Known about the structure:
Layout lengths: L1 H11 L4 H6 L2 H8 L40 H14 L6 H15 L19 H7 L7 H9 L5 H8 L6 E3 L4 H4 L13 H10 L8 E3 L11 H7 L6 H8 L3 H12 L1 H16 L20
Antiparallel strand pairs: 1-2
Amino acid sequence: xxxxxxxxxxxxxxxxxxxxxxxxxxxxxxxxxxxxxxxxxxxxxxxxxxxxxxxxxxxxxxxxxxxxxxxxxxxxxxxxxxxxxxxxxxxxxxxxxxxxxxxxxxxxxxxxxxxxxxxxxxxxxxxxxxxxxxxxxxxxxxxxxxxxxxxxxxxxxxxxxxxxxxxxxxxxxxxxxxxxxxxxxxxxxxxxxxxxxxxxxxxxxxxxxxxxxxxxxxxxxxxxxxxxxxxxxxxxxxxxxxxxxxxxxxxxxxxxxxxxxxxxxxxxxxxxxxxxxxxxxxxxxxxxxxxxxxxxx
Length: 297
């Protein structure tokens, strides 16, 4: 019933959750575990990101990496409302996020996996942790690897989970350094010229909230075109492009493998999500099952 309800609400929402759950894999990792944010200290895996600000604390929705980026919260609200009507205080918001992230992948063309459920919802949130612990869009390979390894995830997992950027969008502000040749580890000489010019035109109005597709080939389909883009110099974020043209041959080899065989990427992504799902949540058994995902009981 949980899975049926989640899928039905997602379909009615027109998959708006794709922007919310999969636009940033480091966020996706924080509610599965992360969905990244990939760092347990950010508490994303226990639905802390869903909490609205209160007089006692500033929630994570207004943290730098999340502000004007994460969306689709009303979709989670609708799923929760339906489940509360059927089974009051039985399904946590953290589990709803995990299932919705999985279903967003499936409904967009990817493989599914068995979500490990039973998480509790946090009793607070930390804007400071979200600001400090989420890898930025200009991160280099070393930073990305460190952030993933802090959770026991490998370089392979990092490259694989970055493939969630095959759907979703990013604001001009997150890739402005790509337009100004002010990149750490990535030169504009490695960027597709036509792609660069199209982005410069898109962002020319100095409106940092303008959105660009993370995958300009198949932006609504969960496939391997994200990696195809990287080999063509069309990675939107610095943290994307360094996987193919950075200083680590191992990441480029994985990218090439996913370009050569799309089925390998889909299977590896499923396995990496299962691996993240097995990580213990920071809340442990000390949380609760919220009635409203936006506020503690």
